[in-house]
Design a protein that fits this description.
- The protein is of the alpha/beta class and about 350 residues long.
- The chain has 14 helices and ten strands.
Length: about 350
């Protein structure tokens, strides 16, 4: 029986195939998927710890030339209501974060057409002067910086690292299929370009995360393509610290008519990710889109990380989702699930 074969692979540390994935996706019920994913989590993390990070998501601008159909946050360059953060505002947000025990800043923004690479280098240096870890600039931003500067991605990363960049978030991946990207975000970097940024970042010593935003125009097979390409790159570089899948939030977007992904479908995708991505140590729950109770349930479907306290979050909020959790609430949810909450840094070093 194929399910027994897959269970044997999972328990003996052997890799599941694409055919195994498709069988699980099409034929196996939610409870069996959860059991398999939880088995993988227990093997990888027998100590029963669930990690989280205290950080703030700072979106330095909402001005963006990409105009992605799934985004409710951006404003076109001609919109007079668009903003670009001042360094004084940045300093105040960092002070607040550090006062709350925050260890890092997640820095992301729109693809602003009017700022040179030197502006972003100055921003990085300014943030690093505070002593906080800077987890900044997703691959579409790096590609944008390369375009506006006329430099290679390699050179852009070298300059940002010299300014103080510590690690790169996995945003902008959406679905790593160019058919999907052409339909939803044709001005954004291609799937190959996203992967090439991550490959180059890893070669220069930066750790990064990887994400997937699913539940819009992609097929189930394209979800597998996304996971396959991540698993292949991780085999080569071992530079990804974690994988974070979340469902598309359609409200206030051009794709508002898309049926919203259910919590059960989210849990299935989370479990499939844990089972298939055998070379990713950490899978993160998405309480920001799912709320606290489903995020807690995620801990039985393969997740071993609760993500960030998200002192500030703007992009998902623009799509009408506004869950909030404090560190105390995260610790309580993890403890109530029978697991041990542990604060971490970006590289999953524990904060003692």
């Amino acid at each position: 029986m194929q399910l027994e074969t897959i269970l044997d692979k999972v328990t003996t540390g052997r890799r599941v195939s694409d055919n195994d994935y498709l069988f699980l996706e099409k034929e196996v019920d939610l409870h069996q998927l959860g059991f398999l994913a939880d088995t993988v989590r227990r093997i990888k993390h027998p100590e029963g710890q669930v990690t989280y990070v205290i950080d703030r998501n700072i979106n330095y601008t909402d001005i963006c030339i990409s105009a992605c159909k799934f985004c409710a946050f951006f404003k076109p360059p001609e919109d007079k209501d668009g903003y670009l953060i001042t360094f004084d505002e940045l300093a105040e947000k960092i002070r607040e974060t550090q006062a709350l025990g925050g260890t890092q800043i997640l820095l992301q923004g729109g693809l602003h057409p009017g700022q040179p690479l030197a502006y972003y280098e100055e921003m990085v240096s300014f943030i690093k002067a505070t002593g906080i870890h800077l987890h900044g600039f997703s691959p579409p931003e790096i590609c944008h910086f390369a375009n506006i500067s006329g430099l290679s991605v390699k050179k852009v990363l070298q300059r940002l690292i010299a300014a103080g960049l510590d690690s790169i978030p996995g945003g902008g991946a959406e679905i790593l299929s160019d058919r999907v990207r052409q339909l939803t975000a044709p001005r954004k970097c291609t799937a190959d370009e996203w992967l090439d940024v991550m490959k180059e970042a890893h070669s220069q010593g930066l750790r990064t995360t990887a994400t997937m935003m699913f539940g819009h125009v992609e097929t189930k097979e394209e979800r597998l393509e996304h996971l396959r390409r991540l698993r292949h790159l991780q085999d080569r570089t071992h530079g990804f610290t974690a994988f974070i899948p979340w469902p598309f939030q359609p409200r206030n977007t051009v794709l508002a008519d898309v049926e919203k992904t259910t919590a059960l479908e989210y849990l299935r995708m989370l479990a499939l990710s844990r089972i298939y991505l055998d070379n990713f140590d950490n899978i993160q729950a998405s309480w920001v889109t799912q709320g606290p109770k489903i995020a807690q349930l995620s801990l039985s479907f393969g997740a071993n990380d609760f993500g960030s306290t998200m002192i500030e979050e703007n992009v998902v909020a623009a799509a009408g989702i506004s869950f909030r959790l404090s560190e105390l609430e995260i610790r309580r949810l993890v403890t109530d699930a029978g697991l041990l909450p542990m604060q971490r840094l970006m590289d999953y070093t524990l904060v003692q």
